[in-house]
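Homework help board

Subject: predicted structure for assignment chain

Our instructor gave us this sequence and asked us to write out the predicted structure in token form, then describe one feature. I got the tokens but I'm not sure how to describe them. Can anyone check?
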Amino acid sequence: EIGDLTRTDVAQSEARLSLAQAQLQGAEANLIASRENYVRLVGSAPVNLQAPPPLPGLPASVDVAVETALAENPDLEAAQNNVIASGFDVRALRGLRMPRLSATASGSHTDFLADGVGHTGGGTVGLAVSVPLYQGGEPAARVRQAQARESQALEQAIGVERSVIAQTRSAFASWRAANAVIESSLLAVQASQLSLEGVRAENSVGTRTILDILNA
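My token output:
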């Protein structure tokens, strides 16, 4: 209005204002969505929320993180137990081709109440051996099928282990990167505040314009 700036400077400021208003509307929409999600999970509106505390017990290195993940990951433990169970299946099916030994026992007891006295009793014990002579190759085929399933379970366990290692290393790298971004952002804010104070001081002596202050 007093001729200190040009129409271009004013247009740039108006464009910046419009962009800031659009960003504000987007932030307000995200805030509403976050509040509604909080109510859905907690059951009440958020009041006086506090910043979350630092996470305790975080690993000091990626190797420690990988060791912890391999020792405590439930998916990996389930895959390893599946391998053990598959091995038991193979051994159980191999037993179908072996002779079988079975034992039997029975007993009897009779009282002669009509005569007033007397009783008889007896018992039998026996062993039976069953030897398979011809089975048509079915037990061998079932054993090979169980062995294939055991190999499949082993490959799945290896795949789960590799996936756990990859996910752990990726998560650890993301965590370290996030901490570095936080530290850099704090330093950037401090530097920008010093820069703004300097530009305002230079404007007071006429070496900086109002637009320079807005940029700062």
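Reply (TA_rk): Your tokens look well-formed. For the description, you could write something like this. The longest strand covers residues 100-111. That's the kind of observation they're looking for.
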